[in-house]
Amino acid sequence: MKILVCISQVPDTTTKIAFSDDKKQFKTDGVTFIINPYDEWYALVRALELKEAGTAATVNLVTVGTAAAEPVIRKALALGGDEAIRINTDSNDPYVVATQIAAYAKSEGYDLVLCGKESIDYNNGVVGAMLAEMLDTDYIGFANKLDIADGVATVTREIEGGQETDTASLPLVVSCQKGMAEARIPNMRGIMAARTKPLKVVEPVAAEGLTSIVSFEMPPAKTGVKLVDPENMDELVSLLHSEAKVI
């Protein structure tokens, strides 16, 4: 079985966010990028577990990005995987990203495509479903357990108020979330091996984005704490109504 794991790079959560003067671009100067946690901790690690168990023969990693994304895909290779593929274009449009990955995946005939449920920067959460449509396969999203036997996947996913277990034949696209696997830390052997593992650069196919960012805005600054005399319930009720807007 061949598995393809989608990897995206995202800003480290400790990054100080800044935008261009016209508020249409996210400034990347000085930003530390990491592997999207949902891609790394759940999709990639589960794929590696399937290979270690003998269920999968090949685990490849794919990212859509410029050469600036190569350090992140190398970090992913340090955890495991046989080969990385970087599709040489940059876009924050989910349709463009899915189109690029689907075009490559079609040419390679993967049995299983895994991705995180969303990226922690744009939180779109739609690439997995788009990929399935483009690859003409089934899709199961928000999965927290995945087993494969005899060409059939058994997937457990969270639903409102409980869990749902589904089965689907391969090929299949699954988006993964917490519970799918335990996060791993690359060891020195993996880090050294990642330097020499193949990283193939593929030129993009033609694709036009369906969305564009009009502007970025910072969230409102947090206001200070207001202390209310416990005897003054009228003021408390007034603040909850007029400022907190919870009643």
Structural description of this entry:
With 247 residues, the protein is α/β, with parallel strands linked by helices. Helix content is 27%, strand content 26%. The protein is built from 6 helices and 11 strands. The chain has helices at residues 37-52, 70-79, 94-108, 127-135, 188-194, 233-242, and strands at 2-6, 9-11, 33-35, 58-64, 83-87, 112-116, 138-149, 152-159, 162-169, 172-176, 199-202. Strands 9-8-7-10-6-1-4-5-11 form a 9-stranded mixed sheet, with helices on both faces. A two-stranded antiparallel ribbon has the order 2-3. Helix 2 crosses helix 5 and helix 3 (94-108) packs across helix 4. The chain is globular.
Helix/strand layout:
Elements: E1 2-6, E2 9-11, E3 33-35, H1 37-52, E4 58-64, H2 70-79, E5 83-87, H3 94-108, E6 112-116, H4 127-135, E7 138-149, E8 152-159, E9 162-169, E10 172-176, H5 188-194, E11 199-202, H6 233-242
In short:
The protein is built from 6 helices and 11 strands. It is α/β, with parallel strands linked by helices and 247 residues long.
Question: Which keywords apply here?
Answer:
9-stranded mixed β-sheet, single chain, globular, alpha/beta, 26% strand, 247 residues
Number of helices: 6
- pLDDT averaged over residues: 92
Strand residue percentage:
25-35%
Q: What is the 3D form?
A: globular
Number of strands: 11
Structural class: alpha/beta
Strand order, biggest sheet?
Answer: 9-8-7-10-6-1-4-5-11
